[in-house]
Amino acid sequence: MYQSLYSSYRPTTMASNGMITTPHYLASQAGMKVLQEGGNAIEAAIAAASTIGVVYPHMNGIGGDNFWLIYNSHTKELKALNSSGRSGELATIDFYKKQGFENIPSRGALAANTIPGAVAGFEKAFRYSAENMRGCFRWKDLLTSSIHYAKEGYPVTPSQEYWTRVNLDEADNQLRHLQRYSEFKKIFTKSNGLSYCAGDVMKQPDLASTLEGIAEDGSNLFYKGTLAKDITEDLIAHGGILRTYDFASHRSDWVEPISVDYRGHTVYNLPPNTQGFASLSILNILNHFDVPSLTEGSSDYYHLLIEATKLAFEDRDQYLTDPDFSHIPVEELLSSKRGKELARKIIFNKSNQFEKQLDPKGDTVWLGVVDRHGNSVSLIQSIYHEYGSGFIPKNTGIVLQNRGSYFSLNENDVNSLQPKKRTYHTLNPAMLFKGGDPYLVYGTMGGEGQPQTQAAIVTRIIDYHYPVQAAIEAPRWLYGRTWGAESNSVKIEGRISSDICEELKDRGHELERVSDFSDVMGHAGAILIHPDSKIRYGGADPRGDGVALGY
Prior knowledge:
The chain is α+β, with helices and mostly antiparallel strands. The chain has 19 helices and 19 strands.
């Protein structure tokens, strides 16, 4: 049985100075060490994010992208950093179609067709920290923890064991069977060809050397130095299309955060090419309903949020891509008028049908940090599918992302592949402000699930006054599909009663029961800052391997 409304299996972490939450305890510890030694939120985030790229390699790493929301408590300014990579100059629809592809391969060198932006994101945020937030750490010192765990090893988590085993499955040669890639097999399997088991100590010496080089030479090594040369040479040898000039031309961009009002609070997210406006659109629709009057956890509550999600996703899928290539009317899509129009389409006794099959993948990490001065970071990074493209350039230890496999080879699709283009990105970190200051720093992994889980956290904390940890632990749902399925369904955790499930089925929802705390729902986290006492309240998701730490 699920516990009472406001209870949780873990306590909410409380602290009066710094707070960090990540989906891996070693990453949380790395960030906390920086905070306790006087570092700011950005510095702690870099230490944590670089570390989790080592100890949670199936979910993220320096071969992927990241996005940042950064609040500077001194200037009262909220900054947004888009550090996603663009496709290579040779990435064209014609290139793939001439090789017989109807879709971009999900794995291998041809899936790695966008530049990884994570390292550039670390360094750009670091420079902002040094120049504007009194940063006190040296660049190389922030990578100490990640280098240590890569070189000396770390205990493999059950999550890594499970996803490694899944990806050694030869039943689906396109998506799995990653041992066909020699570097993957060398790094992520033991001498007997089997995956590391939970508790085994795993070392990544090639990645340690790569991180040591980046610690000494900065991002130039990755984008303009010998590392860029090594990566592209191995990609070319395996038919890949990225070149050294693609790496050299990468840039990460400061962008203007987008926002909506939600019951007197201002909720911020990243603009396109992220799906941040879909996360905000859900809240914009919910503004036109008296959500607090609905019983939380009732069939009405779940139905309303699922239907709002469908409508927000229809707008998203019509427009979302790189805004440099297509006009996206974000202001109109997030207007009160549009929210009201969409809200009118929701019928409480009937489920609307959403025909487009949703992408079920999106293995990601989100982390949040608030330092002693109130500086705050909401950061998300990913390599897309678990283990990304599966392709690791020889002797680098870098798992390259396959985010560019999301591009369409249909030239009429809004997210069609073109050279030097950023693809539609599921990643979107969030912050909610109250009275002009950060009140809730939150986010989650999970591709299509990110907007849905963000809405669950916001409604449970703002509308129902859940404690942070209880809001994260409360039963969740996921509207979408799973690999191999031909239609969308609602995955719903086993703690939701059979009566509620029957009521949802009666309204036309196709339900799929999953475990009580399902990894399918993603790994969420949040930090709430009390506006008066300034006490930080942190929570981490028991569906993952993380922890919220404070001091």
